[in-house]
Structures are given as C-alpha cells and as structure tokens.
C-alpha cells in the first residue's frame, strides 16, 4: 500500500483540502453576491455580503460533504457485508479472516482503488497479515473513525461471537440483513427528502426570477426598489426571508435513520 492509502481518516471530520475549501468559498461568495446584487443593485453590498455570508455557507457545505462521505462509506460497507456473508455461508470451514481477505479482491473489482471501503479493508487486512492485529480490532477502529452505527454494530457483534459459536455464518447473515434493511429504509427516506428539497429550492429561486423579469421589463417599474429607502427595506426583508427559508429547508432535511 502507498502512503496515501495508509492514512487513517476520521470520517466524522471534514477531510477537504485547503484548495477545495477555498474554491467552495469563492463559488458561494460569488453566487451570494449575485443574489444580493439582484435585490440591491449596489455592488459594495453584493461584494461585502457575498464574502461574509460565503463563510457560513462554505462551512455548511463542508459539513454536507462530510455527511455524504459517511453515507457513501455506509453503502459500501453494506456491499462488503453481502460479500463476506456469501463467502462464509459457502461452508468449507471458511473463517472470517479468509472471507475478509477474499472480499478485498471483489471490492477492488466493484469500486476503484481509491474508494474508502477498499482502502479501509486493505488496512485491516494489512494490519492482520503484517502486524498480527486481530481483524476485530480493525473493525472497531474503523467504527470509531467513521462514526457509522452499522460499522460499530458489526464490530461489536464480531467481537462477541468470534470463536464462541458454530453459527458464526448465520449470525453474520442476520447482521447483514438487519443493516441492509436499515440502509434501504434510509435510502427511501432520503429519496423523499431530496424531492422535497428540490421543490423548496425551486420556491427559493422563484422570487429572484420574478425580480429579474420585472426589473428588465423597462418603464422603471422596479426603480423604487433599488433607489428609495422603502425599496431598500423591502429588498432587505426579501433577502432575510430567502435566507431564513433556505436555512429551514436545509435543517428540516437533516434526518438521521
């Protein structure tokens, strides 16, 4: 394994690079600046507001990236459980260690070499082969670093039944089925959430579209919005309502299963 793949990531922390943080910050600053300019038609407000609010939005985005990576690893771990369950249930006295080592080859065919599940299983196998570290310890560590309940539950079950029962394969299969059902339910809920979020974002964009259309119709119909005190107040109320609506839509979609 190369040095890159030996890094033991903490998946509950943000693992974006400084360059990725900077690009995300610049993108959101520009987008927010454009929105503010649509409402105010005043460049200093758009620039300053964009850079200030961009800080908050970049942090929000980095948290989203972290959660998505955890969820992706969770789905990959489900696939890993499918593989080892089939391997162990095949009989021939196959041990958990054999099944995990074999699963690495299959995972490499399903995912690329840089995928999180391939790197993590490769670390567990490498520790077992070269350092004599029991695989159960590797799964416990992965559970702690990923902060994923499914991985933690599997590690706890593995530790409890290792070498203590002849029904090892059956218990692993049952564990797989429980985690599989949980993941499928979570995916169904996430699909519904994504649909609702899309509708909410469309409603957030609609006021911007109306302002743009009405301000480009000519005859000075929207001039008062950009030049008078009452217009500025109305624009500020619109910006606040848009921001609050975005926060509510984002927070309401954060459901843990």
Summarize the structure.
The protein is mainly α. It is built from 9 helices and no strands.
Overview of the molecule:
- With 257 residues, the chain is mostly helical.
- The protein contains nine helices and no strands.
- It is elongated, with a radius of gyration of 25 Å.
Structural class: mainly alpha
Question: Approximately how much beta-strand content do the residues carry?
Answer: under 5%
The general outline is elongated
Q: pLDDT below 50 for ≥5 consecutive residues: which ranges?
A: none
Order of helices and strands: HHHHHHHHH
Helix percentage = over 70%
Compute the CA-based radius of gyration: 25 Å
Structural domain count: 1
**Which whole number gives the mean pLDDT?**
84
Distance from first to last alpha carbon? 34 Å
Compute the number of helices: 9
The main pleated sheet reads as: none
- Number of DSSP strand runs: 0
Question: Features of this protein?
Answer:
single chain, 9 helices, mainly alpha
Layout of SSEs?
Blueprint lengths: L17 H23 L2 H47 L6 H15 L5 H16 L3 H12 L2 H13 L6 H48 L7 H5 L1 H24 L5
Helix pairs in contact: 1-2, 2-3, 2-7, 3-4, 4-5, 5-6, 6-7, 7-9
């Amino acid at each position: 394994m190369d040095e890159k793949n030996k890094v033991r990531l903490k998946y509950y922390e943000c693992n974006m690079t400084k360059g990725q943080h900077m690009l995300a910050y610049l993108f959101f600053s520009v987008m927010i600046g454009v929105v503010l300019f649509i409402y105010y038609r005043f460049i200093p407000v758009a620039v300053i507001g964009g850079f200030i609010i961009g800080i908050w939005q970049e942090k929000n985005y980095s948290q989203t990236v972290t959660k998505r990576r955890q969820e992706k690893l969770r789905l990959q771990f489900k696939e890993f459980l499918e593989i080892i369950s089939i391997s162990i249930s095949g009989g021939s006295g196959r041990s958990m260690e054999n099944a995990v080592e074999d699963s690495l080859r299959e995972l490499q065919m399903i995912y690329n070499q840089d995928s999180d599940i391939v790197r993590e299983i490769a670390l567990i196998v490498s520790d077992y082969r070269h350092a004599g570290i029991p695989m159960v310890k590797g799964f416990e560590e992965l559970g702690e670093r990923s902060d994923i309940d499914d991985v933690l539950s599997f590690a706890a079950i593995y530790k409890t039944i290792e070498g203590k029962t002849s029904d090892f394969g059956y218990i692993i299969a049952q564990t797989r089925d429980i985690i599989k059902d949980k993941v499928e339910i979570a995916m169904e809920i996430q699909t519904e959430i994504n649909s609702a979020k899309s509708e909410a974002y469309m409603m957030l964009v609609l006021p911007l579209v109306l302002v743009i259309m009405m301000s480009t119709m000519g005859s000075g119909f929207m001039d008062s919005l950009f030049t008078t005190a009452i217009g500025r107040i109305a624009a500020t109320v619109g910006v606040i309502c848009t921001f609050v609506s975005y926060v509510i839509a984002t927070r309401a979609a954060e459901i843990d299963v």
